Amino acid sequence: MTAHAADETLDMLIVGAGISGIGMACYLERLRPNTRYQILEAREDLGGTWDLFRYPGIRSDSDLYTFGFAFKPWTGDNAIADAASILRYLRETTVEYQLTRHIRYGQRVQSANWCSERACWEVIVEDLATREQRSLSCRWLFSAAGYYRYEAGYTPSFPGISRFSGPVIHPQQWPAELDYAGKRIVVIGSGATAVTLVPTLAKTAGHVTLLQRTPSYVLSQPAQDRVALWLRKVLPAMPAYRLSRYKNARLALLFWRFCRRFPTAARRLIHYLTRRALPAAYPVDEHFNPPYQPWDQRLCLIPDGDLFKALRDESASIVTEQIATFTETGITLQSGKTLEADIIVTATGLDVQLFGGIQLSVDRQPVIWKDKVAYKGMMLSEVPNFAFALGYTNASWTLKVSLLCEHFCRLLAHMEAHQYSVCCAKPPANLPTRPLLDFAAGYVQRALDSVPRQGYWEPWLMSMDYFDDIKRLRKEPVTHPDLHFSSSNGKPPGPATDGHANAT
């Protein structure tokens, strides 16, 4: 790790050593190699989500040709990869770009105050091993801490939950020693985690029941991408990877657009594919017919139809009903039906926590998240020299993060060229706003009153179109009338330029 003097001001502090933080550091190494930066990670290892979650079957729900970094080809055989494979990929990236010397583990950023007089962030960091606090300064603060609370997931207040005599487990705290062989398991939930757990547990458990209050849309996707594997055989690694990445990103966007523009047709198509994957008499309408339109919530992708296979061989089943109460031996439903269980898994979602729970302030005035508007999906209104990584909800997370990191490096180059030290986004007066994430998932809806907002037009819009973002973030100027620059002595911005830097 590179040592920095206590009074030295870093160019950038990156919070989080997950896929976004590692990606940002790699872009700095590629495009801004002289940047003095550190990565602070509260946990004892890198990887974020892919190291935190240890439940059986944990895997991506996006293909790794788009979920991987643009600059590092994914060489695994499976496009839908497990957590261990993704962690290996991240560790390889860290070694290749020599990031280890920049990462400090067990360090939690507690608070950060922007000091206008010094034109830097004054950051308070806690060493989680010693509980000692220290301060450091940085010119830019970059949050790559994800969007949810790592300490605990979300579990509703189920009636009688304390009465159940067996273990009640949230996937975010899966015990390594749990023996579920031959056991009766009820998995509560209907999202990606639930549909991942059920077929994996069913291979060993006595029986697994997926208990869902409302259904989700479930689509089968091949675990391997045959086109990508063929391209890898006939082309060099990077061209093959780029073509596969483009193909999958384009297909995902086209399907999303189809679902949004023709929701009834999309619903019928998904219903047809689901019915075809299950036995003729299976009650598809009861268990796979959500009350919302496709892509109002993220679709659940299952590799090679593994959930459908578990339902066909009856090692798993689905019950769509609401819980009346937990009992000593299971769950009683509102219909009066009982589900006997040895283990209950509450795959009931996440608790949203933006920016790692850091308490931000500007000149000692606390930043109220709900009063801020996102600029280009990477900065907040009236918060100088602060940026963050937030990926797509309708495609691979990393597609958006990669573009944001690249654009951010162009922004730094523009500031350096004009000797600016401060950058702040300021929205026009009376800008109409709406929720930051236009998404009906429960974890999003629970947090809407405590997160920033977005506008209805660029650059205050959270774009969900990767190919439009390529034009906006990679090719268009970094300057904008709503983005204000100055030097630490208050020097006003000079004439706008195209703001382009070499970002190949």
TrEMBL record:
UniProt KW keywords: FAD, Flavoprotein, Monooxygenase, Oxidoreductase
Cofactor: FAD
Residues in the signal sequence: none
Pfam families on file: FMO-like, NAD_binding_8
UniProt-annotated stretches for the region Disordered: 481-504
Database matches in Gene3D superfamilies: FAD/NAD(P)-binding domain (3.50.50.60)
InterPro entries recorded: FAD-binding_MO, FAD/NAD-bd_sf, Flavin_mOase-like
PANTHER family xrefs: MONOOXYGENASE, PUTATIVE (AFU_ORTHOLOGUE AFUA_8G02570)-RELATED
Similarity comment: Belongs to the FAD-binding monooxygenase family.
The protein's name in its UniProt record: Predicted flavoprotein CzcO associated with the cation diffusion facilitator CzcD
Organism of derivation: Pseudomonas cuatrocienegasensis
